Amino acid sequence: MSQQLPSITLQTSTAQMALSLLESGNYHQALQVFQQVADRDRTLDDSVNQAVCLLHLDQPEAALEICNQTLELSAAHPQAWLFKGVALYRLGQYDEAYACYAQAAAIADQQTPHPTQRPWARCWQALKTVTKRFSA
């Protein structure tokens, strides 16, 4: 007699497969798999990862829409703010993008107890350095 796995396990493994595809650079396939995860089973991280796929596929408008939807559900999701900033940057909305980066860094700092555990602080500094080079 075969045993049925619970639906949530299937959805979780589907999301894990999509994440593996994303991490290996198979953005189109990852996007297709993320889209197969039912809305009721999709986590906020799954949604943000779907936006990342869209950014890699040069679809910043669609990525921005997903990030906005994610932020409506959780305004304290630093990755949603970060990738909203990336989408806005690619759309040429630089001031709005930088505001999103700052929001991502501020939220991440609040969620991380010790300054040495704050990778966002280092990323934010690196981003400011790089943008100064382009601004000059």
TrEMBL record:
It comes from the Bacteria. It holds the Pfam family ANAPC3. TPR repeats lie at residues 78-111. InterPro entries: TPR-like_helical_dom_sf, TPR_rpt, Ycf3/AcsC/BcsC/TPR_MFPF. SUPFAM superfamilies: TPR-like. Keywords: Repeat, TPR repeat. The keyword Repeat applies. PANTHER family: CELLULOSE SYNTHASE OPERON PROTEIN C, TPR REPEAT-CONTAINING PROTEIN MJ0263. This is Tetratricopeptide repeat protein. It comes from Leptolyngbya iicbica LK.
